Each structure stands twice: as C-alpha cells, then as structure tokens.
Amino acid sequence: MLLIRDTGLGGLLLALGLSTVNAHSWVEQLTVIAPNGTFVGAPGYPRGNVQRTVAGFSDVEMTYLIPPDGRANQSQILPTDKMCKDTQELYNQTEGNPRLQASPGAAIALRFQENGHVTLPQTQPGKPPNRGTVYVYGTTEPKADEKFLDIHRVWNRDGTGGDRRGVLLSEQNFDDGRCYQINSGNISEHRQVEFPHVADQTMGADLWCQQDIALPANAPSGKPYTLYWVWDWPTAPHVTAALPNGKQEIYTTCIDVDVVENADLTHTYVKAGAAGYVEDQSLDRAAIPSQFAEIMDTRPAPSGSSESVPSSTASTSASPEPATKTTFLTIYKTIYPSSTPV
C-alpha cells in the first residue's frame, strides 16, 4: 500500500531524508515525561534502530510483521513466530541511537508515525475505527528467541500471566486523538488546525502519535528493562473478496531502557510525580493528557508494598481529554506445524 504525502514542505522533508511515500509504523523514539507532562532529557531508541535520515533508508529495515508476508493463511500465527525482528532479538544499539535512561517509575512517551493509517482510513477497508490497539509489555528477563504467542494477550497487568516473566504495562488506541500526517484528508486538515505543529528536525511537518507508559516503580536499577511494543491491526472478515476470513496484521518493536536510580534531578522528580499537567504547553513535546492522567493514577507500587502509589496532582486538577479506548475481540488460531514454515 502506497500513500502519497501532500505537503508544501517537501524541501524540508527531502533535507531530512524522509520518503514522500507512506510506510507502516514502529516506535521511532522514546522520551522521559516530567510531572508537568513535558518531554525532558535525551531521547532513546529501539534495538537496531536505523534513522530515516540514513542514505538509502527503507522501512523494511524497521518493519516487523506477524504473520509474515507470504504465509498462505494470513490469519495464522504460529507458535514459532518470534516477538522481535531478527535485528532486535538481542541487546543491540546502533551508533548514535542510544538506549533511553530513566529512573524506576518514570513516565515515558513512545512515539511513532501514523503514516496515513489514522488520517486516511478509507485506504484501509476493514480496519478497526481506533486504527488498531497498541500494547506495551515489560520484562527484566527477555529471551533472545522470545515467542509472540507466549506474551501477547498472555502477560497481564499483575504479572501472573503465562510464565510470569513480564507484565502488560499499557493498552491504548493506535490513534492518540491528536497525531496526523500532512495530507489532504479531512481528518488531517482538521487536526492541523486543532493541534498545530511547526515542522522540525525530528518529526518534519507531521505530528507523531504516542503511547505514554510508566516503568514499574520496582524496576531494578543498573540493568536494562525490556519493552515489547505490539500494534494489533486486524482486518475484519468479508470486507473484501480477497480476504473472506479477514487477516491478522501485527507489528512489533523491541526496546531496552537503562534503569538508573536517581539519574538526575529531573528523573527523581518524575519518579515522585508531584506536579500537575500544564494544559497550554507546546504539543511537540507534551504527553497526551488522558494517557498521562491514567499512568499517574496507576503508577505501579514500589517493591514490597501492597498499597497503590498516591495519584499525582495531575490526575485531580487537570482536565484531560476523555479516554476513549475501543476494545476489539481478536481470535488467534494456533497452528502446530509438522515442519518449519517458510
């Protein structure tokens, strides 16, 4: 699927090395969020990250699809399907793309491009109205050959699911309610007015989507904490003749965060969660109000504590956007092959 970007900022986009054709999505960057909802500190990047500004960049270098293209039954997810792309199976940071550093309990924004999936929904018939659901799972015990079906919809928020190595940290709509690609679609044009963004060296002219999470407050310092980002984007049955049974379409990004106790005063303040969300700040470096309020309310308790950590002022004094998460039932058919799939 190719979508042409309609933008008068082509010169800037070309200078950034950005393609004028649409691609699928992955986590491009992570940033710590201060208690006022503002991004702070140096950003971090996924395993094996390749910047779009690299000469000859192609989205296949960062895209990982489950089930893979070429599988006869596009609704089959096999027990051998891995969680991570081959370039992201191990701790692997490319030059100039370091891991994010954050304190235990820190609020973090994972940002990704919508690439027309939100603003041009008519080009993708049969997709859910929320443009799919994004999940973030976390673990201190990652495996190099992590299997997708061992984690997705198995690990839960209290850590009792599956092999209990990890937890579900977040479940949100792919569409965060603000993000857009510059194009001539009605959604894009409306959001460009409602959520203005000045083109910059990071996002170009588009406003990226984000998923805001909190690291567990008891995440051990001095070692990486691994995040698995999963975008579940199914196609419904009987929408097109080519897909009478619909299909699964899932993309993942695998990420490590360096957990550093009291890395600096900013991170300590984030951990304390003692300030309120600033409503009129620049959208270029701001958390999504409804997601931020949610994570400040449900910040995981410190190790050994049975009490919930008190909510920050942000959750009581701010007026966040309504959280409108849509739930879809996805049925997985597990196939146990007699031989290794192609």
TrEMBL record:
Keywords (A to Z) from UniProt: Signal
Keyword Phosphoprotein: no
Tree of life domain: Eukaryota
Region ranges (Disordered): 297-322
InterPro entries: DUF7492
Keyword Plastid assigned: no
Residue ranges with Low complexity bias: 300-322
One Pfam family of this chain: DUF7492
Signal sequence region: 1-23
Domain DUF7492 per the UniProt entry, residue ranges: 21-288
Name this polypeptide is given: DUF7492 domain-containing protein
Source organism of the structure: Aspergillus saccharolyticus JOP 1030-1
Classification lineage: Eukaryota, Fungi, Dikarya, Ascomycota, Pezizomycotina
